[in-house]
């Protein structure tokens, strides 16, 4: 579904990504592992059209989108749930969710069905629907951010550090939701520092360090890789 072929990104004289090549197949949950500053967020923002690659190709469903506008990329079926959630804190949870459907051109009934799906995935959001999003806990705000991305009914959902700063129980809830989203037919690309938890739900993964892909493999291959375990799993 998604192929990055030797993608590089440079800001002035500073190269952030160098010849990054990854593939994400339809129906997969692929994890991108890396420490803070490794280039994960830059890679996601480049796929979303917020940064332009210096060179390389980004192919989604057969079309090169490397130079496409962000709105066109969203319309093609890619949703980006960014690090830091980026909610509208003074707006209600419901309004934040509905903003995710702004690009939809199908019926109001279809949008309502997606909202019902999001509420079933995160039942607490029904209770909090008319509260300001900024009044929620960090974990609940992350659920709103994921739900907002899902409201666009994407074919590919990119989750950038969705568990950052969350309590262990909430980490598990968020990652279980990511796995459920994938089982429901939405392809997921997940950027994470929490390798042990992320690999538990992933099909495959890549390790990015200082803007380079250094390791790739299946979940079992990465979990058994000594260097990956020492650097990211803590074993």
Helices, strands, pairings?
Blueprint: E1 2-11, E2 14-24, E3 29-33, H1 40-47, E4 55-60, E5 63-64, H2 70-76, E6 78-81, H3 93-99, H4 108-121, H5 124-127, H6 138-150, E7 156-160, H7 168-183, E8 187-192, H8 195-199, E9 204-209, E10 212-218, H9 219-223, H10 226-233
Parallel strand pairs: 3-8, 3-9, 6-7, 7-8
Antiparallel strand pairs: 1-2, 1-4, 4-5, 9-10
Report on this model:
The structure is a single chain. It is built from 10 helices and 10 strands. By secondary structure, the chain is an alpha/beta fold. The strands form 2 sheets. A 6-stranded mixed β-sheet has the order 6-7-8-3-9-10, with helices on both faces. A 4-stranded antiparallel β-sheet has the order 2-1-4-5, with helices on one face. Helix 7 (168-183) links the parallel strand 7 (156-160) and strand 8. Helix 3 (93-99) packs parallel to helix 6 (138-150). The two termini are 33 Å apart. The relative contact order is 0.18. The mean pLDDT is 93.
DSSP helical segment count: 10
Query: What is the CA-based Rg, rounded?
Result: 17 Å
Average of pLDDT: 93
User: Stretches where pLDDT falls below 50 for ≥5 residues?
Assistant: none
Structural class: alpha/beta
Please give the oligomerization state of what you see.
single chain
